[in-house]
Specification:
Layout (H helix, E strand, L loop, with lengths): L5 H5 L9 E4 L2 E5 H7 L7 H10 L10 E8 L2 E9 H11 L2 H22 L7 H42 L5 E3 H7 L6 H11 L11 H5 L3 E9 L5 E10 H12 L1
Antiparallel strand pairs: 1-2, 2-4, 3-4, 5-7, 6-7
């Protein structure tokens, strides 16, 4: 797609709000600008971007988005340059009038770029024909490079996708020791895994998961009872992991 000129964007009433730019050969918009335009709570940006961009399996880094750091009010924050297709998807999820307005704007800019590409005039001289040929060859080489980069990125993502497909939809549960073995953490992996998840704020000090991770379908606490020789009943609580939680832990370790 041809680079959309800033003048073209500013001619649209939303151009100053949702600015289109070019990053690494991809036409993008700032995810943070879109988030604020949709009217979401600014204080929830970090949580929203983690859920809807970084941890969203549907979107692929390097294909649909690229992260970058920026300085805001003296603080370094992370923003994401997202493709127009991804931006339209996020607009649809917002389910409000602003989401519809932003989506129509992205469609408008894509059509404008597409129309500009389709405008072709015959060369008026031999030198002009050579220049057009050189430009066409350069654009084709650039497109081939972009496609190769996308293919390499998708190839890198395949193990993650295949892993998720293998475990998604299963209700089987695993003990933490089994999870450590699957993730090849060694003989001491169980204790290391408990310590790691406590450090990440997933498990409490008693190795039980916080409620939000239970609600997300990652973990389950199983209660069992047994009787002591003196007749007293002892209650034992064990944290087990669903297959969905196994994939979540794997991604935490990968980071």
């Amino acid at each position: 797609m041809e680079i959309i000129k800033r003048d073209d964007v500013l001619n649209h009433p939303m151009g100053e709000v949702l600015r289109i730019s070019e990053k690494n050969g991809m036409t993008t918009v700032s995810a943070k600008d879109l988030y604020e335009f949709l009217g979401y709570d600014k204080s929830q940006w970090a949580r929203w971007s983690l859920k809807n961009i970084v941890n969203e399996e549907y979107f692929i880094e390097g294909v649909d988005y690229e992260g970058f750091d920026m300085v805001s009010n003296g603080n370094i924050t992370t923003d994401y340059g997202i493709s127009l297709d991804m931006a339209k998807e996020l607009c649809m999820l917002s389910r409000n009038s602003r989401g519809k307005e932003a989506r129509q704007y992205f469609i408008f800019m894509e059509n404008k770029a597409r129309n500009s590409i389709n405008k072709y005039t015959l060369p008026q001289s031999y030198s002009e024909a050579l220049r057009q040929l050189a430009t066409t060859v350069e654009q084709n080489e650039k497109l081939q490079l972009e496609n190769k980069q996308k293919e390499e990125t998708i190839t890198k993502q395949l193990p993650k996708v295949e892993f998720y497909d293998a475990v998604a939809g299963s209700d089987d549960i695993l003990e933490m020791g089994e999870v450590a073995k699957i993730l090849t953490m060694g003989e001491q992996g169980r204790n290391q895994l408990f310590a790691f998840l406590r450090d990440k704020g997933v498990l409490m000090k008693n190795n039980q998961p916080y409620q939000k991770y239970v609600d997300a379908g990652y973990f389950k606490v199983i209660e069992s009872t047994w009787s002591k020789p003196n007749g007293d009943v002892q209650i034992n609580l064990k944290t087990v992991v669903y297959q969905k939680g196994l994939d979540y832990i794997r991604k935490l370790l990968a980071k």
